[in-house]
Design a protein that fits this description.
The complex is a heterodimer of chains A (460) and B (313). With 460 residues, chain A is of the alpha/beta class. Chain A contains 18 helices and eleven strands. Chain A is globular and about 70 Å long. Chain A starts with a helix and ends with a helix.
Chain lengths: 460, 313
Amino acid sequence: MRSSRTGVAALLVAVTATSLLTACGSSTKKDTGTSANGKVTISVEGWRPGSEQATIDTFKAQVAAFEALHKNIHVDPREWEWKGETFATQLAGGTLPTSFRVPFTDGKGLIERNQIADLTDAVKALPYASKFNPTVLAAAQGPDGHIYGLPTGVYGIGLHYNRSLFTKAGLDPNKPPATWDELRADAKAIADKTGAAGFAVMSKGNTGGWNLTTLTYALGGRMESVSGTTVSASVDNAGTKEALDRIKAMRWVDHSMGSAALLDWSGINQQFAAGKIGMYMSGSDVYSALVQQNSIKPADYGLALLPMSDSPDAGLLGGGSVVAVSAKASKAQQNAAVLWNDYYYMRKLVQQDAAALDAKTLQEGKQPVGTPQLPIFDAATLTQYNDWIKPYVNVPLDQMSSFTSGVFSQKLVAEPPAHTQELYALLDSVVQKVLSDKNADINSVLSKVNGQAQSLVSAG
Amino acid sequence: MTATTPVSRPAGRGLLHATNRWVRGGGLATFVFVLPMLLIFGLFSWLPIVKAVVMSMQSTNLVTDAQWVGLENFRQVFNDPLLWTAVKNTAYFAALALVFGYPVPLILAVLMSDLRRARWIYAALAYVPVVIPPVVAVLLWRFFYDSGPTGVFNTVAGWVGLGPYPWLESAHTAMPSLVLEATWAAAGGTVIIYLAALVAVPPELYDAAEVDGASIWRKIWHVTLPQLRGVLFITLVLQVVGTAQVFLEPYLFTGGGPDHATTTVLLLIYDYAFGNTLGGNYGAATALSLMLAVTLALLSALFFRLTRSWSTS
């Protein structure tokens, strides 16, 4: 009798389990984002987590202005920030906004994997489509020449410094260091006289690799070498060795780098805005984040050109973002997203009325206007844009003049082309090693990591 | 007695008959009551486990179609030099947690149980860290561990002329620092379990020991510990399984650094899955997850076998 009962129970369990699996496996109807009255809804990247209320209000005002122009589009702004740790999960789970920004380093990979939408037709319909700087647009193009996004926020790495700490250390805040030796001396003066870290580098969440690559470029090295279609790792180059030697000397001989060895992008911003760091390297546009998230005192802020070595290969690492659209979005959503991205990111760069309106809205919302950026089209267009927004500029441009006046004469170098973020992750541990171990053998560490990097790029 | 359905009876009638008897016997009611649990477990526990086993033999980015790769993911994990670093770090964490984290709650519980008054205040105080959300606790401890001279621990060390120490920034002190916080965070829960178990120890055993002239230490050794051995065994297994899966502390405090000094097995699984911003190596992540699960299951079985007499007598 027991076996009969067990059999019935087993049958019921099997039926239930099958129903369960079937229910899980059945696909839901694809959401096209279009309502019955033909209104298209798109979600877009709004403000970063932790932003001030004024930032959120200003963004919402811009959304309202866009919706007034495009009555058939509803824009749903999301609190969102690209983070290396969460992006892959959001992408796989389908929880990204319809439109989002990714670093240049990730654009190519997403295109190859068909994870972002082909926007060629919609982008080519934009009035300024033919004016893009080809090098910049290439970051958003696939091998087939199709366009998968709009380039935005193009930056060069700058040296950000705390003017107040400079003054306290007896240094001239209007004379930031112009060579790496001067930088080392200034960092030591700041550390000795104020107790703050004179100079700091990031080392967590792939940012250590990013900073080390920046320093390597400035000293004439390259992390990868390209020959035809073959990419080779060259992490153990002379520039990287010199970069690490300099970090090691500042950390362990001068004691001018503080003892925080595990800083990431937001962590270093926080410490810098709190007056605990004298100088650090980051994108030239980071001032906006320092205001919006870290409430930095404008009077404390200074931006200078990153010192370059005498090497003919010395260059400034540049980067930016691609505003992409989810491959899962319907055609109507893709077109609506391009219209929004045109409105929010691009039009202001080429149309005077749009530039003025955007700058006025930002200024009224007490948001930074005029943070230095590099040209997406050409230098003349950027100069013209800067003229248009001049009446609304509220960032201390005179404290950034040593960067803005010299950046166009710098040699801009793109980030390493193959497996960039994975390479940066490998290099994180190198930076951490040098910051945490005063006996670190730089040659042996680099030789080991170069082998790992080579395996990475060889894997294709 | 195991099969009562006659062979000659038609299968349909037999099944109907069995169903009737099963329903009348309360089988249906039992099933209905079990159904919600079955659905929830099926959906949120068993289905992901089955999917993980499948995924461990696939190459997938969860967006495009998955490819079958057989045991390639396992091979890849075994060949990763970081695996052995992660295993060593996890074992180090587990060993430190065992040496420091395991006796501390027991000592606290025994001391508290000896208190005549206000025992509940001490129990509540010991339990407070468990109530604090783990992320908040870690953020709090980051202030304690601040490597500058103004950090809380460094300030205290400074009073006696020591430090400042790079608690989390040195490969030597990072892991012990994580264990210290983890012990603080978890001890309260175990203290409550021990306190409950101590109440169940018959007082006449202590009285008898006292009559025999036993010291406090001998009472603990010969009465308390043998009476708690069942509970001690369970908490030991739970602790080993828990520490082998440590993730939160290394993830939030150090991200696995400096120079992989705190990269644990679970953090490595996380890095496989989410370290690459373009969609990670989910196959390798699930392969390593399965390897960890099997190892822990075997370890638990081994514990049960080795301590069978200890835990049941």
